[in-house]
Amino acid sequence: LRSINILAIESSCDETAAAVVNNGREVRSNVISSQIELHKLYGGVVPEIASRKHIEKINQVIEEALKEAGVTLDDIDAVGVTYGPGLVGALLVGVAEAKAIAYARKLPLVGVHHIEGHISANYIEHPELEPPFLCLVVSGGHTHLVCVKDYGKYEILGRTRDDAAGEAYDKVARAIGLGYPGGPKIDRLAKEGNAEAIKFPKAHIEGAPYDFSFSGLKSAVLNYINGCQMKGESYNPADIAASFQKAVVDVLVEKSMAAVEEYGMNKFAIAGGVASNSALREGMKKACEEKGIAFYYPSPIYCTDNAAMIGAAAYYEYLAGTRHGWDLNAVPNLKL
Ligand code: KG4
Ligand code: ZN
């Protein structure tokens, strides 16, 4: 097999990222310029600010990615880029950039689905991992239980009906006075709390065993805090964090393992920003051990948005013959 270097670009939300990935699994560089400090001031991502910042950063990030990989554009075989789902203005920056480079250098252009990227992050550090497997994608924007039937072939078994798992973390974090993004902060605070202190509801949806719902849980946390305040009682944020996290993790583990069982899978993976959550990793690891199936998860750097995962996904799309034209557009609600 010929060695294929892909220059990958990701700009769907608030990270401007570029990477050079060889043969889908060897990351030669992975550069991320995060805008978190900027959006923190507003308690969440402001789309207009994200787009503007991407434009400012993207050329520099790509130059760094090439330099770090020790290559020039002459060594690149294809350009991969996230074209959805995400913020339309943010996506457009990466898509326009990828098209410009591919057109100027006469390179194939490969558009990638952001979730396919998150799933493919698992290929980077697990050379032995190949489809079929089951993958739970949990991020700030998505909660998808996906059957990866083959490279580029996905069946969505379930998804969230309302908030994404990461969104629930961020909203609860805000309610207990932790900053944005709240996921890592709740993760840390939960370690000092009692997960059995408060019983929060776990949503199960009639007739849709693999769908999720987190807005009820979020409301329950807010109601609990309001209730305490109205009664003039104090509450323990660490206990809230731990109990909330347990409710989230329990549901994710239960539904994932039920799907593993039904689909007869012997490999299970997690992906997305929330996949770096310590309780989720432990819970899944234990459950998979009990079932005697292999469990995969990416390092934290490949869990949150990055371009290396887009390079991994783009490689398999490239092998499958996926090529996009100069009319490639950003698709904010792109289906997997
Ligand atoms: O994948 P990602 O970077 O962006 C999206 O595609 O949405 O995920 C970001 C989300 C945020 O909601 C953040 O709070 C959450 O991932 N997150 C975590 C942890 N680290 C990041 N949630 C729980 N525990 C963590 N350790
Ligand atoms: Zn993401």
The distinct ligands, each listed once, are:
5'-O-[(R)-(carboxyoxy)(hydroxy)phosphoryl]adenosine, zinc ion
Gross geometry: globular
- Counted up, domains total 2
Radius of gyration: 20 Å
Q: How many strands, what sense, and barrel or not for the largest sheet? A: 5 strands, mixed
Percent range of helical residues:
40-55%
Q: In what order do the strands lie side by side in the largest sheet?
A: 3-2-1-4-5
Mean pLDDT: 96
CATH homologous superfamily assignment of the largest domain = ATPase, nucleotide binding domain
Count of DSSP helices? 11
Following the backbone from N to C, one meets helices and strands in this order, namely EEEHHEHEHEEEHHHHEHEHH
CATH architecture of the largest domain: 2-Layer Sandwich
Distance between the termini: 28 Å
**Total beta strands:** 10
Q: Give the class from helix and strand content and strand pairing.
A: alpha/beta
CATH class of the largest domain: Alpha Beta
CATH topology of the largest domain: Nucleotidyltransferase, domain 5
The share of residues in extended strands comes to: 15-25%
